[in-house]
Amino acid sequence: MSDDLQKELGVVRDEIDAIDAQLLELLNRRARCAQQVGEIKARHGEAGFIYRPEREAQVLRRIQGLNPGPLSNENVTWLFREVMSTCLSLEQPLSVAFLGPLGSFTGSAATKHFGHAARLLPQSSIDDVFREVEAGHAHYAVVPVENSTEGAVGRSMDLLFSTPLKICGEVVLRIHQNLMTREPSLDRVTKVYSHAQSLAQCHEWLNRNLPNVPRISVGSNSQAAELAMQEAGAAAIAGEAAAERFNVPILVANIEDEPNNTTRFVVLGRFDAGISGRDKTSLIMSAPNRTGSLHNLLLPLAEAGVSMTRLESRPARHTLWEYVFFVDIDGHRDEPKVAKALAELQQQAAYLKVLGSYPAAVY
Amino acid sequence: MSDDLQKELGVVRDEIDAIDAQLLELLNRRARCAQQVGEIKARHGEAGFIYRPEREAQVLRRIQGLNPGPLSNENVTWLFREVMSTCLSLEQPLSVAFLGPLGSFTGSAATKHFGHAARLLPQSSIDDVFREVEAGHAHYAVVPVENSTEGAVGRSMDLLFSTPLKICGEVVLRIHQNLMTREPSLDRVTKVYSHAQSLAQCHEWLNRNLPNVPRISVGSNSQAAELAMQEAGAAAIAGEAAAERFNVPILVANIEDEPNNTTRFVVLGRFDAGISGRDKTSLIMSAPNRTGSLHNLLLPLAEAGVSMTRLESRPARHTLWEYVFFVDIDGHRDEPKVAKALAELQQQAAYLKVLGSYPAAVY
């Protein structure tokens, strides 16, 4: 390196060193504050409530609002996520059960929500994830609920119906689809494997780029990736993690038609969350089976001016009703407007279960 | 929550908010400095050298020296690792090939060294890891070299012999062994599977706790975990990642006899590192096959006062010499004392390859 370069770099590096010393001081002051929070709560008999989802959401939203750049909001949210996770772990290390393996989309969601200091406990089925938390072996669970790629939604919803656990958070993860194959170019691809939902997500891309190649629907994207590795001429559509797991080269990345292809996960614990200022509430309802009953059922929400962000019907099992409805609404169950609408719903619905109120996903 | 509690918490939370605003400001100032470093290097035609292993090691060591607590040195090193990783990714996102799958010990080592912002590329063999970087598909490789649990050392060493890549870093990872089984208690365990090295690491624990139970050596700890999941009465000794991968409950954690059970990895890239102030240099040497030749070979090091931290001999393949020696020494090849010793060695040895100089592991 030239002397000039060394000198110029030296100036900037001295500045970085000065910044780092300040950062270090502040991080430790923050950790002492977190300890004080723990002490105060212990003195008031609330030692079990060190992790407060609504408070974490507020901190992260505030950071995003203040962020001047050049770090992106995603960058700073991640860094503060890690700072909070580390400070919290001094007080109460959290354990999180999720649908494994490590490296799965759900694992990414768990880390995105709880940070690196949480202990991740991968489970081999969604049933096991619920069971681990219900049995007290883990503090929190993370499961997919609206999963555009793995088809796991149904099971999560069935288990939400019967679990005593509460939803205390949501995580939204951007999902990219990739065409992976051992072949060196598209013209060597003779079939494409994927889960039906993933094939549908890349429908237009396939029409344009592989118009005459058969599309074969298989049970999961992981299975598709495995087949692509084994069979000459085969390609799979799957996420990056599957390409990594089965060591199949990605030929074309990000082929999803919809640029905003996401999967939504919920975080479950023994309690739901307090009011954060931008919250959602999830419900399960059912109506007696007559025409127009759904409309009547939803009327209290409309009249109270509560917006619905999701409505999904699902054939009921082991119940008196033919359908159950999964409904997400804006607002917290403790906000007067929402509380009033829920009281009305309680009157109307044959069955109503409030799954929990929680901060809307922060990033 | 009581009003008192709310009020007390409010005071501390206000302080945290103030700290966070300062942290945010400093993090962005740091990112701007990192951008300046990039601009300065580009102006001097060194745009490819944004990542400097020796500089990162210096920053982390300084942080550890300044850290007042309550955050542990491990906590703050991790947080600054993430801060640097994020700042660097604005300039030059790094890709890192490693021995997969995700969740393996080597994956943990890669994240420990490069932070979360690096792109991890798991490979299914050590050969593939080297190849990815040699072919320019990844910037860096992470491979185990002294692996007390997976028996992968040999292949790494053979490939180090022939690769044009240079060692630019090392990572030391604490490895815990665990007894995992589907059985509810130790008295139900009728056999223990593990890799021979892992059985050896837990020899005393097994003598004390499972004295009459047969120990069966298998090819890898992963395989042992899989068998423990399949066979009634079977237990495995393996790391946490294997328990997670095969969903076998851990019955007793941290059963290794040696409390300092670690695995050492090296980071490989196209260039080695500059002087960081606390460095190592790795060499491969061979001697003509005569008695006393190893002693003669090492004499220049002893005379120059250079300490050896590791010496390992390995039967040579495809070479004229019967043995090659893998030697790690303290110090950087550009330090006069080391440079002089290496020049002497060059005279004495039938073959000498300097694999690289790099900062000693920081945490």
Automatic annotation (TrEMBL), chains A, B:
Pfam family, one: PDT
Residues covered by the ACT domain: 282-359
Superkingdom of the source species: Bacteria
Coiled-coil annotated residue ranges, if any: none
GO biological process, one term: L-phenylalanine biosynthetic process
Site (Essential for prephenate dehydratase activity): T263
Domain named Prephenate dehydratase: residues: 95-270
Recorded metabolic or biological pathway in which this protein acts: Amino-acid biosynthesis; L-phenylalanine biosynthesis; phenylpyruvate from prephenate: step 1/1; Metabolic intermediate biosynthesis; prephenate biosynthesis; prephenate from chorismate: step 1/1
Keywords noted in UniProt: Amino-acid biosynthesis, Aromatic amino acid biosynthesis, Cytoplasm, Isomerase, Lyase, Multifunctional enzyme, Phenylalanine biosynthesis
GO cellular component, one term: cytoplasm
Domain Chorismate mutase: 3-95
Reaction(s) this enzyme catalyzes, per UniProt: chorismate = prephenate; prephenate + H(+) = 3-phenylpyruvate + CO2 + H2O
EC number of the protein: 4.2.1.51, 5.4.99.5
Subcellular localization, as worded in the UniProt entry: Cytoplasm
Keyword Amino-acid biosynthesis: yes
GO molecular function terms attached to this record: chorismate mutase activity; prephenate dehydratase activity
Annotated function: Catalyzes the Claisen rearrangement of chorismate to prephenate and the decarboxylation/dehydration of prephenate to phenylpyruvate.
Name of this chain's protein: Bifunctional chorismate mutase/prephenate dehydratase
Species in which this protein is naturally found: Azospira restricta
Name of the gene encoding the protein in the UniProt record: pheA
